[in-house]
Amino acid sequence: MAGSSDSRILVTGALGQIGTELVEALRRNNGNNSVIATDLRKIDGHPVINSGPFHIADVLDKAALEELVINNSINEIYHLAAILSATGEKNPELCERVNIGGLANVLEIAKKHNIRVFSPSSIAVFGPDCPSIAPQVTPLNPTTMYGRTKVAGEEMANYYHQIHGVDIRGIRYPGLISWKAPPGGGTTDYAVEIFHQAIEKKEYTCFVRPDTMLPMMYMDDAIRATLELMNVPSKCLGPARSGYNISGISFTAEELSNSISERIPDFVCNFVPDIRQQYADSWPNSIDDSDARKEWNWSPKYDLDQLVDEMLSNLY
Ligand code: NAD
Ligand code: AKB
Questions:
Q1: Is 146 a catalytic residue?
Q2: 132 vs 181: CA distance, rounded Å
């Protein structure tokens, strides 16, 4: 179980937006040396590298990943390495290779060494035919390569669970908003960039229209959801186990900008949509998370005002 003294954890993509905070939480709960952080890149002085074991590892190098698993007696993997939506549309071949190939390697290693896996999905699994409040079960017809890899990832995870008994779990994270690490090339990045620019320049050019409404979540809620899901007994989880809908807050880009202006009165936000508008338009406005609430008691804590207060007070 996550949080138990015998957890030996490996995190892929550990220097990214989520990994930076998830590794911190996992090390707090399990001890620094029980959490082996890995990433394709190294960032000097990064808190993940300074606070415990770190190795460079490409998730496409299955042999190297397996060696790390064996040498460190790993029994749990948090597989965060991925190419996100906007970067993925610039390089769909890389997106497909990393997101599907990396997960395939992790699943094979998990099967062979009896490892529990957390593998994130995304609201990007939904497409334009999804109702504006996305149900847990609905046709998944994403327009982006990233979304397609996430649908495939959920299906691969279900297969390894059903056929090979691998204990794998996942969450369809909304757009995540945080201040400790920058976002890694997604469509929802505007909701983080706006805070940095509001503080540094009092001006931001937002790449989606003011009326763009997307499901979002403060990082503290996402980390708590991840740990809570991994701590639930496997028998409590239903067919959504590889990609639970979880809901945080939905707001338009204009509502976010107005909320910042209430706290920084001379802040000006301009709206100049680019290609990322199309990806945003293909995603739902909000999320029905009743399965997660019922099966593992999921409930978000942060509303828009709390999120904006937290972001500004931590970035100032
Ligand atoms: P990120 O881009 O910030 O971090 C991903 C990390 O993976 C980076 O540090 C990168 O160096 C690493 N990486 C890329 N290719 C690699 C490879 N071949 N081998 C090893 N490492 C590699 O992403 P994130 O926001 O931390 O997202 C983590 C996971 O959560 C991803 O699966 C993503 O799809 C999912 N997710 C994130 C969000 C969000 O808003 N941040 C929302 C939904 C889902
Ligand atoms: C992205 O915008 O690509 C990510 C996501 C919602 O998966 N933040």
A1: yes
A2: 30
Asked if pLDDT for residue 2 goes beyond 60, the answer is: no
| CA 190 and chain centroid, separation | 16
Asked whether 186 lines ligand 2 (CB < 6 A), one says: yes
**pLDDT in the model for residue 58:** 98
The CB of 84 under 6 Å from ligand 2? The reply is yes
Instruction: Please give the distance, rounded to the nearest whole angstrom, from the Cα atom of residue 266 to the centre of ligand 1.
Output: 34
The span from the CA of 248 to the CA of 216, in Å, is: 6
Nearest ligand to the C-alpha atom of residue 153: 1
**pLDDT in the model for residue 3:** 46
CA of 91 from ligand 1 middle (Å) equals 15
Q: Closest-lying ligand to the alpha carbon of 145?
A: 2
Mean pLDDT of the chain: 97
Is the confidence at residue 273, as pLDDT, over 90? yes
Q: Which domain holds residue 191?
A: 177-216+249-284+302-315
> How confident is the model at residue 5, as a pLDDT?
60
Instruction: Look up the CATH number of the domain holding residue 184.
Output: 3.90.25
Same domain for 181 and 118? no
Do 126 and 197 share a domain, yes or no? no
Ligand 1 mean position to 2 CA, how many Å?
21
